[in-house]
Write a structure and sequence with these properties.
seven-stranded mixed beta sheet; nine-stranded mixed beta sheet; about 475 residues; alpha+beta
Length: about 475
C-alpha cells in the first residue's frame, strides 16, 4: 500500500467518526429536549417536527387550564362543537379505547375552544391574570362594554365591564365568555365588538364564534366536574339542554334611550291606581311565566304588553291586561287546568285548536289574554272572535323569530323583529299613545275572517 493512501484513509475515518459522534450528540439533545418539554408541558413539536392543528389547540387548552387552575377561576366548557361530541356514543367509545394521551373533545375541527366564567365567582384581579397569561407566552385580548345592569332612564353612561377574553397561541384561540347575573334570575353575556383601536386580525371572524355575535341569556346551569382528554373540566350537567338554550339565546336590551325620550314627551303616570295596576300586572306576568314554563310551553310578549316593553321599557298603565303569544303547535290541553290550579279562572275561550284559538284568564283585577298564532305561507296570524255576533277576525304579522329580554324583573321572550311586529299591530305611529282602542277596527293588520256557524257557538264561544 502506498504511503500517499494512508493519510487519505485516516482523514476519511476521522471525518466519519466526527459525523457519527455529532449525529449521536444531536439525537441525544433532541431526545433530552423532548423528554424535558413533555414533562414540563412544553411539547411544541408534533410527530412531524411541528405543531399540527390538534396538537396546537391542545397545547393552548392545557396552558389555559393550568393558568385558570392557579387563579382558582371556575371556568366551564361551553364550546358547542365539544358539547355536541359528548352526546355521540361512538365518540365516547372510541375515546375510551385510546391508550395514549390524545385530544378528542377539547380539540375540534375549529381553531377556537370556548369556556364560560361566572362573574360573581371571580374574585381575582384581572390585571394579574392577564400579566400571568402573557408571561406564559399567551397573547390576550380583553373585550369590555357597558354594564346594562347600571343603565337606567336617568343614567345612560353605564360602567364598562369585561365581557370576553381571547387567549391566542400558534393561531388558536381560547375564548372566555363572562356571564353576569341579571335581576330576572338568569345569566347574561354581552356581544363581542372589536373597537377601532384593536387588532382586527386577532380572530378570524366574530361570526364564527359560538358566543359574541349577539348578547345572550341563559338559565343558570348545574355544573359537574368531569375528565375530558385526561384533563379535569367542568361542564353543564344537562349539556343537551344547554345546547338547546344556545340555539335560541339571543338577547335584546330594553331601549332605555328611546324610552327616556318617550317619557319626556309623555310623562309617566304615577297615581296610586296606576302604581297598583303595574304591581298587579307584574305579579300576573310572573305567575303566567311560572305556569307556562312548568308546562314547557314557550311564549312571548304580544300586543300591548310587547308595545309597552319596546316603547317605554314598562307595562302600559292604561292597558288593563297582559298579552301573551303562543305558537299553536305548542298548545297543550292542560293549559286551562294549570292556570285554574294557579288561581286564575278561565274568563273566556274563543275558537278551537284548528282555528283562531284564544284564551282569557281573570287575575286580580287584571286580565291575562293568550293569543295562539298560526302559520300561513309567508305570514303568521292570530284570531279574534266577537261573542255577540260570532264574527271572526284575523291579525296578520310578518314572520318573526324569538329573542330573550327582561321586563319587570322577568326573563321573557319577544319577537326579535320587534319593530316589524309592533308596526304591523299598531301602525307607523305606534310611538304615540292611544287610549281609545277598538280591537275589531283599530289595528292596521286586522282582517274580517268570516263568521262562526251558529251550530258551533257552544264550542267556539265560551264566556264565563
Amino acid at each position: 500500500m502506498s504511503t500517499g493512501l494512508m493519510p487519505r484513509m485516516n482523514r476519511t475515518v476521522v471525518l466519519t467518526l466526527l459525523i457519527t459522534t455529532s449525529s449521536i450528540f444531536l439525537l441525544f439533545q433532541l431526545y433530552y429536549y423532548r423528554q424535558y418539554a413533555s414533562k414540563n408541558e412544553l411539547n411544541i413539536l408534533g410527530s412531524k417536527g411541528y405543531l399540527s392543528g390538534k396538537e396546537a389547540q391542545w397545547y393552548l387548552v392545557k396552558k389555559f387550564l393550568g393558568l385558570v387552575h392557579k387563579f382558582k377561576m371556575p371556568v366551564f366548557l361551553v364550546d358547542i362543537a365539544s358539547l355536541n361530541l359528548l352526546s355521540q356514543d361512538a365518540v365516547l367509545y372510541k375515546d375510551s379505547q385510546q391508550k395514549e394521551a390524545h385530544c378528542s373533545f377539547l380539540c375540534t375541527h375549529r381553531d377556537f375552544t370556548t369556556f364560560a366564567l361566572l362573574e360573581n365567582l371571580w374574585k381575582y384581579d384581572q390585571d394579574v391574570l392577564l400579566k400571568a397569561a402573557e408571561e406564559r407566552g399567551l397573547e390576550v385580548l380583553e373585550i369590555r362594554g357597558k354594564d346594562p345592569r347600571l343603565t337606567s332612564m336617568d343614567d345612560m353612561t353605564g360602567n364598562e365591564i369585561p365581557l370576553h377574553f381571547l387567549f391566542r397561541l400558534n393561531g388558536h384561540i381560547v375564548h372566555v365568555v363572562i356571564l353576569y347575573e341579571r335581576s330576572g334570575n338568569y345569566l347574561w353575556h354581552g356581544p363581542l365588538r372589536l373597537k377601532a383601536s384593536m387588532d382586527k386580525t386577532f380572530i378570524p371572524s366574530v361570526e364564527k364564534l359560538d358566543f359574541g355575535r349577539y348578547a345572550g341569556a341563559y338559565d343558570r346551569p348545574e355544573l359537574i366536574l368531569t375528565t375530558l382528554d385526561g384533563l379535569d373540566v367542568r361542564i353543564p350537567k344537562n349539556y343537551s339542554r344547554f345546547l338547546r338554550e344556545h340555539s335560541g339565546s339571543r338577547f335584546l336590551e330594553c331601549r332605555c334611550k328611546e324610552a327616556r325620550a318617550f317619557y319626556q314627551s309623555y310623562p309617566d303616570e304615577t297615581s296610586p291606581d296606576v302604581m297598583d295596576f303595574k304591581m298587579k300586572a307584574k305579579s300576573l306576568l310572573h305567575l303566567a311565566s311560572k305556569v307556562l314554563s312548568g308546562l314547557g310551553v314557550p311564549f312571548w310578549l304580544s300586543s300591548g304588553t310587547c308595545l309597552g316593553w319596546y316603547r317605554q321599557c314598562n307595562i302600559i298603565p292604561y292597558s288593563k291586561d297582559v298579552d301573551l303569544g303562543i305558537w299553536i303547535k305548542d298548545y297543550r290541553p292542560d293549559i286551562i287546568q294549570a292556570f285554574q290550579k294557579a288561581g286564575l279562572p278561565l274568563k273566556h275561550k274563543f275558537g278551537k285548536v284548528e282555528d283562531s284559538l284564544e284564551l282569557s284568564f281573570q287575575g286580580n283585577d287584571v286580565k291575562l289574554d293568550i293569543f295562539f298564532f298560526y302559520d300561513d305561507a309567508d305570514v303568521v296570524w292570530n284570531g279574534g272572535t266577537q261573542a255577540k255576533s260570532g264574527k271572526k277576525f284575523k291579525y296578520v304579522f310578518p314572520r318573526f323569530s324569538l329573542c330573550w329580554t327582561e321586563l319587570v324583573d322577568l326573563k321573557v321572550q319577544v319577537p326579535c323583529e320587534t319593530l316589524d311586529y309592533v308596526t304591523a299591530n299598531y301602525g307607523p305611529n305606534w310611538n304615540v299613545p292611544v287610549k281609545v282602542w277598538d280591537w275589531k277596527s283599530s289595528p292596521p293588520n286586522v282582517q274580517e275572517n268570516g263568521v262562526w256557524p251558529v251550530r258551533e257557538w257552544d264550542d267556539v264561544i265560551q264566556v264565563y
